[in-house]
Amino acid sequence: MDSLTLAWIGCGAVAALCWLLSVLTREYSFVDRIWSIVPPVYVAFFAYRSGWDARLVIMTVLATLWGARLTFNFARKGGYAPGGEDYRWPVLRARMSPALFQLFNVVFIAGIQNVILLLIVLPAWAASQRPGTPLGPLDAIATVLFLVLLAGETIADQQQWRFQQAKRAARARGDVVESQFVTTGLFRFSRHPNFFCEQAMWWVFYLFAVASGAGWLHWTLLGAVVLSALFHGSTNFTEELTLQKYPSYAEYQRRTSRLLPLPPR
Fold first, then answer.
1. What b/e readout covers 54-68, taking b as 16+ CB neighbours within 10 angstroms?
2. In angstroms, what is the C-alpha Rg of the chain?
């Protein structure tokens, strides 16, 4: 059986498991918990099926670095602890009927999100179809850009983590917290610099497929496109909730770019 078919079978099995666990536990963040784990496994599988082609080995290393960093960041925020559910799911449950939310759980939370996790790494499958294609300048450019974006996301997440820890400590001491959300560091130039880096990394990942000879416009670009669309909707929802909680966020929205890092207005 070809590697792409096997990957889709694996994707279906993981989606079914996430759905089953959500039904049994009434927690709906199991896809979040495997978000950083499954993509590197897919890439490593394609590398194995290619005979460990050099380009696929590089892609596997990069995907693993991405996954390790994201897993660490998710774990320290309590994402793997019992009850560590995404704060947005309870809001959606309150807005939907039980039956509608369960349909949403099957179709989007467990289904579509797992499909996206496979789609974003399919440039690795495209590259695996052309093993032995020599490495070139585009591979080097893609590798450097991926690492730069990975570093940017790491810095942004660390700045956000330090801010949230300081805010919790201030509240515990009974101090007045002047700023409720981070606006310094990379967040001075973008309201979501970590989101920007996350999306851009998978557009850069596609360059490896181009370097392998798949062409500049190959259908595996779909993963980066769909991921960007997902982030667009997710960011809208996140900012809606933040604005409801902190009205002063509107001023931050006015002066700071949404995603692309730009000088403050």
1. ebbebbbebbeebbe
2. 20
What are the tokens at 209?
Answer: 């497929």
d(CA 33, CA 18): 10
Contacts of 244 (CB under 8 A, 6+ apart): none
If one counts every other C-beta atom within 10 angstroms of the C-beta of residue 190, the result is: 21
Asked whether the beta carbons of 65 and 150 are under 8 A apart, the reply is: yes
Taking only the tens place, the pLDDT of each residue in 1-50 is 899 999 999 999 999 999 999 999 998 999 999 999 999 999 999 999 99
Residue bearing tokens 């850009």: 145
Per-residue pLDDT reduced to its tens digit, 215-225:
999 999 999 99
**Element at 94 (helix H, strand E):** helix 88-95
CA-wise closest residue to 35 among 234, 204, 181, 218: 234
DSSP structure class, residue 213:
I
